[in-house]
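Hi there. Long-time user, first ticket. I'm pasting a complex I've been working with (about 846 residues overall). I'd like to know whether the download I got is complete or cut off, because the file seemed smaller than I expected. Thanks.
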Amino acid sequence: MSAVITGAAVLTPLADTVDGLLDALAAGQSGIGPWRAFPRPPAAAGVGGDLSGYDVQRRLLELRTQLPGVVMTRMDKMVRRVPWATKLSLLVAADAALSARWWLGDVAAEDLAVVCAGHNLTPRYGHDNWKKFQVEPDYMDALLAVHMLDTNHAACVSELLGTRGGIGTVGASCASGNLALRAAMDELADGARRVLVVAPIYEYGETTLQALGLMGATSEAGPEDVARASRPFDRDRSGFVPSHGAAAVVIESAEDARARGVPALAELLAVEASSDACHRPPRPSPVEQAALIRRALQHAGLGPRDIDLVSAHAASTPVGDLAEARALALALGDEVDRIPVNAAKSMLGHSGWAAALIEVIIAIAELRRGLVHGTVNLDHPDPRIPLVFAQPGELPVRTVLKNAFGFGGLNCVSVLRRVDDA
Amino acid sequence: MGRRLAVTGMAVNTPLGDTLDGTLAALLEGRSAVTRWRTIDTSRCYSKIGADIGDYDVFPRVAAIEGRLPPAAAARLRRLLPRLPWSARLGVTLAADAMADATLTDHELGDCHVVVAGHNLASAYAESGFVGFAKDPANLPIGLELYSLDTTQAACVSELAGSRGPTYTVGGACASGNLALLAAAREIHHHGATRVVVLGALPEPSPGSLHAFAMIGALSITSFNTTPERASRPWDAAREGFVPAQGGAAMVIEDWHAAKARGAHIHAELMAAAVVSDANHLTVPDEGGQARAITLALRRAGLHAQDIDYVSAHATSTPQGDLVELRALRQALGAHADRIKINATKSMLGHTFSAAALVEGVAAILQMNAGRLHRSCNIDQLDPAVDLDVCADGPVDWPVRTLLNDAFGFGGINAVSIFRRSEA
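Hi, the file is complete. Here it is re-exported in full:
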């Protein structure tokens, strides 16, 4: 069975449309600025891709003209009460469903599934309620017991779209977005006809950013240097830049998409996962990552020669970027001198559990439009990283490798192919 | 369809014990795990009671099992444990316990896939971070973010096994354990796994999360604070909500032929698991959704309603949920529902949240293999609406070939698993 992606939506600091996002990235624009979502913890740089000012009401007004009435009613009932991050999950899922013409075709609700990528999604909401608990326990959100659960994102999206098939969350830290695609393919293999995959915003929180800062995981660039903070593969990279972002895609079989008359945006050829068997960062294993990439290519029935573009994990960390470059050299052999690599996190920062799915969607847009983005802030490429960096501009690409290597040594990579006869 | 699945390793940890034999004996005796909370400060909570292993010391258990682990894995376990906060420390020990029970070699451990059931696990640890941040941000533990993440528990199990296989968490609220069994089946059916370590990680109730559940009226907070052992009383007329519990369990799910080939002891066969959504994000148990999950699992297992001998119920002791589940069983099993036994392990253990389906899955397999079912405790006056045999009167000898393990979570997440006795 051939799995295709028929709908996609993003919500990022640079854009909330897929084409708008690729346009901005290809133009080298950065979504990174001063962090405004909450006061800067002392060890944090105060820099990030911040969506806290995103205009939910404006987006709801736009959706009101497009969503079926019954769906908009469910949206209105839920969106008012749920926490901020869940509101954004509802918006991005609705957008992906529209893009896939979700309501076209005759599929039973029991054959529609929802997979949610991520875990520990709302540390800031948790912290806010803890503060209220300290003042007066009953000041907490009356529905905290429902809203604090990661599964609430999946359940709200399921309610919005009326899905009655499979449901659940999957988590593999920064590889969660890719892993959710793997889980969606399993749903299809077990009989689901269509799967909505949502990757909610990872909120970060004061303690999160403070702890990451103390750990030395995040960029040290200060507010005076915001657009230069995230610099994957550059000599002067100092850590990742925390960022908000959410994404959603719709996956179904090529046969079902054709029968519904819905164009496939891309074909999902393979998704493979592995572990480094070492939970403590930063100890990424190039050997393990390379073995995983080889396995994914093999499952896709491809070799290094077939890959036209690598969408790197490249979070701008000193150790991680180097390990990934070494893994690519090991896995792709001589072809690594040919295959262009780009790093969306140079402009978007690192949206945590959602990052891989956002970057999958960017890669799909690149496949479809023959337009690729580059990597900004590569002023002094790390001499130990002999990769070929994609130049922004027109470039026909047929097959993309999407890497995701997560905190705790949890890895997942996907391979996507352009659909030519759409 | 697909390859057969064997349960070759099991482990459980609750206030009733950290061994399989001890747990079964305690359940058959009808002992309660529920007390006043000792290790959680509930001074500001409505909720005062629960099943408490907050001060559990892992090292006696480690000493008991490490001789049955490959030496390299035992050494990795010893190295890992001191770093880990409570939930991960007990979780990794449970995973090691199940690996030891499965008598896996280092080589066999090395190709395990790892699935951890649960989400939002380390909430008390995260709250300790909020406290530390309020006092002195510069003094936060350096690993706070790492050890706050559910995925770190999965990564630790993978490190313990020395396995490079796929490693991740799955979440389905209080049904998470059955979602993890479904994921394990998929690893073997679709991803070439030979064996999967499944950990029902221990959720860590915090004062704030206990209060959150009390605020939506889900907990027993009124009548049984001085008699906590009587609070969890599924199907009793005086039930008033669930009793939160600390506890966890682990299983090793293995390709049947691989298990046979290495001469492994097989506790049971995992026939199928299934999950379906109610399309309702709130806390409204739905008879139709629960029945659909049961029917789907039966279909996947290639079984019929008549094949079910025993149901390990979700039965959390809530006024509404306990009855909805019985109606769902009647809807899915038809007249056969009158010929089966149903019991509620939560009547003794309380509700271990995302771990419940694995804790109770282990308990159910132990009962199946013993041919004896524990009673559903605290049924002083059976709810008159209960019209099925819920084991109210006492433990009972009952031959079980096939059992159904229910778990229904917040957000309309209905998941069940089906196990069958492994014939010698």
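A couple of notes from our side: The two ends of chain B are 22 Å apart (CA to CA). Chain B has 15 helices and 14 strands.
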